[in-house]
Amino acid sequence: MADRDMAGEQQVDAAIEVYNPWLTPRKKLIAGGIxxxxxxxxxxxxxxxxxxxxxxxxxxxxxxxxxLFGKDIRVNGIVVPxxxxxxxxxxxxxQVLDTKKKSGQPLDVVFPGxxxxxxxxxxxxxxxxxxxxxxxxxxLTSIITRESRKYIPxxxx
Length: 157
Fold this sequence. Notes:
The chain is of the alpha+beta class. The chain has helices at residues 2-19, 25-51, 58-64; strands at 56-57, 72-79, 85-86, 92-97, 107-111, 125-132, 137-146. A five-stranded mixed beta barrel has the order 2-4-5-7-6.
């Protein structure tokens, strides 16, 4: 009797494998590959959307104008000498120029925090992260100073 029950269970198991197409090893492998491909593609998309553009130059920001209003951007530029104005408590406003041209229309910038240590060095190159507002002023969340590839010592006069 037990042998008969065992044989009946084996027939039921065999019948399930025949009628359920997802139980075949080949189709399981294909389904797993599709799931992995979709996951991998989604990860690549998210990473490239968030870091697809490293930074804009000042001239590019001015060319795009109102298209950038309300958007978070990164801008590369050189601090205009003599344009740095410190606030009463914290904060600083200044202007930046294009690193390639080093001339033209400067971009007005406001930063509510304390700027980095090398910020006052003449012709320091900076990468600015912030939001461009409708007043055509870049409101920063962070300032990163870029060191020169060539060391130039500061001489005392």
